[in-house]
Amino acid sequence: MKSIAFGCALLMSFGVMAADAPKTGELIGDPRIVAPLDPVKTREAGVRASEAAEKIGWRIGSQAYTLRDRTLVEALDTLYMLGLKYVEAFPGQAVSPEYKNVKFNVGMPQEAIGLVRERLDKTGIKILSIGVIGIDKDEAKARQLFEFARSFGMERIVTEAISYAKESSEGSIWTGHGRRKRHPRRPVLRLRRQTLPPCCRCSRC
After folding, report:
1. I need a labelling partner for 164 at 20 to 30 A (CA). Which of 23, 102, 141, 180 fits?
2. Maximum Cα–Cα distance across the chain
3. Do the Cβ atoms of 33 and 41 come closer than 8 Å?
4. Which segments of 134-183 does DSSP mark as H helices, in order?
């Protein structure tokens, strides 16, 4: 039933794309448009669709890997133009034209991190997850990844692993189990951040 309701809302949103509606703000950066469309009306329609989806508990977004022909900052500009609010980061993507040799991953320089945060704040887009990314067997290195994800407020880490459960800071734990997706012979694990009660701070409970 929710799927039917959302489908109807989505069709209605795009059906009024050509109608005169209040502007939702100027575009940010260069969305690198590759098709003949009206950027402003496209954003208006996308915002309507996103708002309709959220009313039934859905969050519309995109994988940054879909926009791997551009940098992360440019991808965020594109998603903003499409009216989307959520993205799954791709660890092999360059940060920006100014930081083409810096990938969005653990160990980024603070200047690049600041640039990404600034663009996220400006566009209002949230990074929900990152993947597909490996988790080092060394606990210290694995913790660096967890803290990196936590610092951006991510909810999931998509990785190729069988099982994993590690405690992060502030009483949070990343847990998950393997499931197959896209890679026929390699299980993909989606680690989800769960907040533990004050009485439980370990991964053994």
Report:
1. 102
2. 57
3. no
4. 139-151
